[in-house]
Design goal:
The structure is a single chain. This protein has 135 residues and is of the alpha+beta class. The chain has one helix at residues 30-53; strands spanning 6-13, 20-26, 73-77, 84-90, 98-104, 113-118, 122-127. It has one domain: Sandwich (Immunoglobulin-like). It is built from 1 helix and 7 strands; from the N terminus they run ββαβββββ. It has a 4-stranded antiparallel β-sheet with strand order 1-2-5-4, with no helix packed on it. Strands 3-6-7 form a 3-stranded antiparallel β-sheet, with no helix packed on it. The longest helix has 24 residues, at 30-53. The protein is elongated, with a radius of gyration of 18 Å.
Amino acid sequence: MNGLTVIVREIVEAARPNRVEVRLEIVDDDEFARRLSAWDASFRAWGARRDQAGRPCGDPPAEPAAFLNDIDGSLTDDCNTAYRWDSKRAGGSGTERDAQWSLTPAPPAAARVLTLTIGHDAVLTWYRSAGNTWE
């Protein structure tokens, strides 16, 4: 995605009630390292301009993982639950390669299959295990 390799690390029913979370991770390869280094340089330049002006100078540059917030997707299950996007977050200090998408509601207890469609190309399926986790 966007020239980077992204994996869906896991899908979990969230600690916050009535949510399901999709956790993604950008693979830490040479391309990501290059983009992170370029972002770091532009962020430092932005900070220097802000410090010199003594006030905010526009928004900081977008982190390399920020594009993950703009990806369209949908979640379905075998109970025809209507999932809605609750929030998306990507990047951050110490989590530069991570993203988390939250949807509501949590899958019903009767659901056994979750299918995540990302963009037009990726379709991933999870099955509820005997331990009530998604694998």
